[in-house]
Amino acid sequence: MDYLCIGEPLIEFTAMPDRPEGFTRNAGGDTLNTAIYLSRLLGAGRVGYLSCLGDDGHSLWLRDRIASEGIDTTALSARAGARPGLSFVTTDGAGERSFAYWREQSPFRSHFDDPQMLRALPHAGTVFLSAVALAVLHPAGRDNLMAWLQARRDQGARLAFDTNYRARLWSDPQMARQVIGRMAAMADLLMPSLDDLQGVFGVAGPQAAMQALIPMTGAEIVLTTGGGPVLHRACGAASWTTHDLPPAVAAIDTTGAGDSFNAAWLAARQQGATVPQAVQAAARLAAIVVRHPGAVLPRAAMTHLTLKDA
Predict the structure, then answer these.
(1) What is the Cα 106 distance to its own chain's centre?
(2) Nearest 5 degrees, angle CA 93-CA 97-CA 103?
(3) Rounded alpha-carbon distances, angstroms, from residue 259 to 28, 108, 251
(4) Cβ neighbours of residue 139 under 8 Å, at least 6 residues apart?
(5) What averages of pLDDT result for each successive group of 10 residues across the chain (310 residues)?
(6) CA neighbor of 138 nearest in space, from 181, 175, 86
(7) What is the radius of gyration, based on Cα positions, of the chain?
(8) What angle do CA 132, 37, 286 make, to 5 degrees?
């Protein structure tokens, strides 16, 4: 497979504006959103998902939902008696979302406590994960996973890392800085947002963010700025380029915008797009996503999406 994505899958319930008492049920979780979009863009069997679910009805539904997107579930374990995490999403008039979580029972959190869980996993050209995945793991499991990631990189795999920072998931800010900094140093591709870096490292703006990251990692960097220009640093370069996005669209729900941006960037570059082409493709998909409720679009809404400019 081309990509193996790692993370905590969630059952996402999204409040529907036309049904105040009603919710829709969807697959959720940042890296799962990215995996779904990647699979749609690249084709069935080219993306796998590494995680753990339970054996209850919601887990079985979620496993089937993941498989229905053409995602390889070889590395998706099932634990007897476990239940997946839940997420309830509401949006305001500007499309900004707020979340309520019930995820402490998620079996992913202890999945890597036993290093045996990291044996005999499928190989992939690129392994993709986020800081959310690292935040929710137990410390021993986190260390086991990061050692496995380094071993995979030593064997030739690329590591792509989204710095997705959620302060409430970390025991303290210093731990977040240490772990995110350690993973950034290992990565071949770093995909931060300005909000992430302001939260973790206290940077003042995009330029300061790049200046903070460059001594930290030799990775290629794709820095998003919440709808503003994207800053790109090639692997090992001392400077960066700036790429403007198309005009902003009116958002209905911003859930999944960053996850879809990551997927379209990865897919576009996989298919030979230049950096400006990949930025535009990623922005086009994110603009479609924010005009629909929930993190994952209906397939039909992606029909005319292009990854490379003519």
Answers:
(1) 18
(2) 150
(3) 11, 20, 16
(4) none
(5) 96 71 83 97 96 96 96 97 87 68 91 95 97 97 98 97 96 96 98 96 96 96 95 97 92 87 97 96 94 85 80
(6) 175
(7) 18
(8) 80
